[in-house]
Amino acid sequence: MGKVYRDAKDALAGVLRDGMMIMSGGFGLCGIPSLLIEAIRDSGVRDLTIVSNNAGIDDAGLGLLLQTRQVRKMISSYVGENKTFAEQYLAGQLEIEFNPQGTLAERIRAGGAGIPAFYTKTGVGTKVAEGKPTAEFDGETYVQERGLVADLSIIHAWKGDTEGNLVYRKTARNFNPMMATAGRMTVAQVEHLVQPGEIDPDHIITPGVFVKRMIQCPPGFDKRIEQRTTRKRVLA
Predict the structure, then answer these.
(1) What gap in Å lies between CA 183 and CA 23, rounded to an integer?
(2) What backbone torsions phi and psi does residue 124 show, to the nearest 5 degrees?
(3) 186: closest CA among 146, 150, 223, 147?
(4) Which residues cross the membrane (predicted)?
(5) How far is residue 180's CA from residue 30's CA, in Å, rounded to a whole number?
(6) 117-120 and 71-76 as β-strands: parallel, antiparallel, unpaired?
(7) What CATH number has the domain bearing residue 72?
(8) 123 domain-assigned
(9) Is residue 132 included in any domain, yes or no?
(10) Cut 0.85: pTM above it
(11) Does residue 209 fall inside a structural domain?
């Protein structure tokens, strides 16, 4: 069976279940797999553990899953810009496992590389290190962090071929490539779908072996901008 599916609902059919761990690519609203997130919301699955740098905003991205109370736990680095997240956390309705951003990236990369744990100096002596093993190397204390492997990774790419080879564009690359390797099942949404051989092999970032299913974003696909910053126009 081919890897390309008609839409996000079809691509996630038979994959979703209550209580699963899902990695979701993106940084803010940049490079998020928004169509796949919407399909997860519509499926009604609950008690999810979400691994993502952030939790979207109140009405977009992973914020949609918080609105419907489908998320039990977030493993994240930054969760600002989301009032729903704050309300649920303060009310004891949502668990959070904070990670320094580099540590989160490395936990995901390690999981994808089959590395169960690693040591880092980041977080030593803080709440981040509480309850975790430590070890001394060259006279310095390091804390052990575990690699992360998800039941499902959902990612966004700029271009992909029908064999699953992916190319990312600029900062929308962010967490997507490493999450693509760290999911037992990886589903990608791509803006431009091409045939095998149409992507220069030197440009491929995620090899197709990591991608099991994919969809093409429809024409006019809306990519939200979280905060638009522009310079004032200088009049001649």
Answers:
(1) 7
(2) -60, 130
(3) 150
(4) 20-40
(5) 16
(6) unpaired
(7) 3.40.1080.10
(8) no
(9) no
(10) yes
(11) yes
